[in-house]
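The protein record filed here.
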Amino acid sequence: MASSIVVVICSVVIFAFFQLITGEAVKGSVPLNSGVFQKVIDKYQAVLVKFDETYPYGEKQDTFKKVAQATISQSDLLVAEVQIADYGDKENFDLGEKYGVKKENYPVYRLFLKGKPESILYKGSATNADDIKKFIMKESGLWLGLPACLEEFDKLVKQFYKASGEERNAIITQAEEEAKKLTAESEKASAEVYIKTMKKIAEKGDNFVDLEIERVEKLKDGKISDKKKEQLSERLNILTSFQLRMKDEL
């Protein structure tokens, strides 16, 4: 009996060790090394690269997986990972030095944009996937779906900011017509937030969004139920989408 237990324990340890030394493939991401780095970077409109230790794990790696998964349908964006070894052959150590990556700061995210000589350093939280996605959208102009955001309505928001006066009213009417086509309750709720926000901007001006984000963030930080906090987070995502598209037009 004791020998059987020892065999089982050894098998589990060997399996765990095998996973550790072989690493883990992240869906939606590709591993890069010094030999192919620039070749791959040059092929895409935008490339988000995570510089990290070898065989990363834990909450920060789980966040990276969420970001990579969310970008799969965006063909102009590639998510990649460079694992840097500070031992043995020091694989990819040269890439870390080139881009100023220090071990104590792992993971480090940099966004490479086609035609731009310098990459952009992400300075936000490495455990918040939505913040990383917002960073990508802000700097690249590419669309990524944040929770509660609707791609077709984000396109209308972009048109809305380009328009003025009666043209904006026409886009609001178009948004109301699009909302009628939705069947999912969650999408209907999101569409309502888009429409109400457009109407408030038409009434109070473009600075309404920044003021509303500030107001909602204060509410979200207060003593509220988890359900209400989730609803406010989704509202913030939609408001942030407005904010990003407004900055695109400045």
Summary: Residues 151-248 form a domain with the Endoplasmic reticulum protein erp29 fold (CATH 1.20.1150.12). The chain is about 55% helix and 10% strand.
